[in-house]
Design goal:
167 residues, alpha/beta, 9-stranded mixed sheet, two-stranded antiparallel ribbon, 3 helices
Length: 167
């Protein structure tokens, strides 16, 4: 483990903060990756249906925020974790185990930053989370469990180089 020098700061009698170069502290910084991800329920949709579900829930909840779906490695997904209020879940996390109550997913080969439904009335953002190793591995596992065929691209209307619309 690397050891780093750190400058201590002390207050003098006037409350001014000054550094003390002669005092050294050692600080160990550990990065402990998660060891296991447990998914208790998988729900697969066609992408159009997943988008409609998200849009409907957004409208039912007042529709003030733009709904968002995560995307990585050709899969759009939503995660429903267990709340951290449970002592059991906190203990599991400290052991390196993540528990997801439900993962909703749909195959979606191409990433699009925005999806529009009913013209421009409802907008859904897709967030590319593919730089996160856990989400990349999760997407690959979801592809292995997929049973529905990927939606045909004809379901989308192109808007040039911009986002596509979902009718």
């Amino acid at each position: 483990m690397a050891q780093y020098e750190q400058t201590d700061f002390e207050s003098d009698k006037h409350g001014q903060i000054r550094s003390s170069q002669d005092t050294e502290q050692q600080l160990d910084i550990l990065v402990e990756p998660w060891k296991k991800l447990v998914i208790h329920e998988l729900l697969e949709y066609r992408f159009e249906d997943l988008a409609k579900l998200v849009a409907t829930q957004s409208v039912q909840q007042g529709g003030t925020a733009i709904p968002t779906i995560s995307w990585a490695e050709g899969v759009a997904f939503l995660i429903s974790p267990f709340p951290d209020e449970s002592e059991v879940i906190i203990e599991e996390k400290l052991k390196g185990i993540i528990h997801y109550n439900t993962v909703l997913f749909a195959l979606k080969k191409n990433f699009e930053a925005e999806i529009f439904m009913r013209g421009h009335e409802i907008r859904i953002n897709l967030i590319d989370v593919g730089t996160n190793d856990i989400f990349k591995l999760l997407a690959r596992k979801l592809i292995e469990h997929a049973k529905l065929p990927q939606s045909a691209p004809a379901a989308y209307t192109s808007r040039g180089n911009g986002p596509a619309g979902l009718q």
